[in-house]
Fold Protein SGT1.
Amino acid sequence: MSYTVFIKEKDQNSAERMEENMKLATVEDAVEYRLFLIPDEPRDAEKHKEILQKYIERIMTQFAPMLVHYIWQNQPFNLKYKPEKGGVPAHMFGMTKFGDNIEDEWFIVYIVKQITKEFPELVARIEDNDGEFLLIEAADYLPKWLDPDNSANRVFFYHGELCIIPAPRKPGAVSWLPTTPPTIPQALNIISTHPEKILASESVRAAVNRRIRGYPEKIQASLHRAHCFLPAGIVAVLKQRPRLVAAGVQAFYLRDPIDLRACRIFKTFLPETRIMTSVTFTKCLYAQLMQQRFMPDRRSGYRLPPPSHPQYRAHELGMKLAHGFEILCSKCSPHFTDSKKSPVTSSPLWAGFLDSLKKNDYFKGLIEGSAQYQERLEMAKNYFQLSVNRPESSVAMSPGEEILTLLQTLPFDIEELKKEEANLPPEDDDQWLDLSPDQLDQLLQEAAGKKDPEPISKEKEHYDLTQVSTSMKAFISKVSTHKGAELPRDPSETPITFDADSFLNYFDKILGPRPPESDSDDQDEEDFESLESDDDLDFETQEPGEEASVKGTLDDLKSYMAQMDRELAHTSIGKSFATQKQMESLAQITNSNSDEEDAAAGDSAMTPVDVDLNLVSNILESYSSQAGLAGPASNLLHSMGVQLPDNTDPRPTSKPAKD
């Protein structure tokens, strides 16, 4: 009876987990994050909700100085209360669509990590539509037992560190570890009772920390300031809501023919009101806007100067952004009213939120009532409305509705805005849009975890070609499974050895008679382990009959190999290999018995094949045929840490045949 109940509960949990994964998978480019309070003690539901709501207020307030000015690609970082459901305790939940800007996702990882550091009683879990993307980032350093099938509910942030709940090597070996992937309550209990035993390895933590290194200073480095020739209404809107530039860019970037109908004749942002201004983009938004080729409709009134004009780029950027804002406003109802929005200051949370901002020096000592103070205050109100005081039942205001609301409530003077044209800050250099091959290689090496990649020496005499042969031998000696072959991670750390006797012993183990039957599971494990260690192949422990049989099989195999060598020696295949011209091997063949001498006259001239020379020459030929492009030779060698210099030899050119 108890077993049946266990199966039903397990199936129910699996179905609920599958349902959540399917929901997240249907949302492309989205990240989900959950914050749990430990220890998970029984509490009254309403009281627990009140506690978590207080945490949301404290978190969003404490991180407000970092989040208020951040320009999100699609959606901002947000938290809301989520009640208990399906065995998952009540917690704080958030989901953000980051779109094409992957940096938004990793910034959220940094925020979540810092939250667990500032609030030690909180445990965080984060995943996206790819699943455990933190494990994907640290894939080169994960333990072998961890795979997508058993990684559910194992990865958390606690005390600002990445934690991975281990799995027992044998069922029941560790009493506090479940044999199956843990449920959320089990995971929270393990984290609270054994925090010192779940810390991820240093290499795994370093891989994730390397990806979020540089925050929060990195936020400024991800911005790009450019001059744009924009209608005055858009200039006034962006002064109050700099984040709306993302919605404008996305509307233009994802436009369709129906959207462009609204841009044949502009109704909201007339081209006659355009002025020069400075707009702050993220680098992702700027690149999306710059890489789009677009010519406006003649009826729109947006005409561009010739490309040689010094302000052509500012006119082009302004034209594209104006189209995006016009598209946003065209999607609003003509009878739109600002009935959805209530005053921020009427919220009971606003006073405490404002006091917390002042304690965290959000206003930077500005005089209350000054223009800069009011600008920061308006941004804080907007952040509060979106992230802190957003009721679950409320309908979010669309960007177009927000733009129209600002145009109705914001007084702005075009002449005053024109006066600011003379004092615009300089534009940022956009050379980062163009990557040289060396810069691309450096980025790829940094992504692979190499801190200081050594430049490839161009001098031939300083390059050791034995690295090619030794790395390839190390690759061949590795054990491959149905999951693929393992590549040597760092050939320079461990000496590479290739034991021919051990290699032949593998054949002895495979072709020899099977030992007496034992438990099938144990035997399979022993067989697999024997392939991973040469020390397990000890023939001294075999029975005399088994040893003789194995020796006979080995002799037969060697005989077959020698016969094939003799048959192929005088063919085009045999002549294609470079051989070792050693006098001692010729002397050994000359002193052999007369029967072998009469077998074939050419056998006396056979010399051993130079394996290293043939291996290196074939790989160099394959590498040269790639003509600098990616191919099997360069990919395989690069994965083993071997980089070949460029081929500076002149390529032979075919001459036309003469009649």
About this structure: The first strand starts at residue 30 and ends at 37. The chain has a mean pLDDT of 78. The two ends are 93 Å apart (CA to CA).
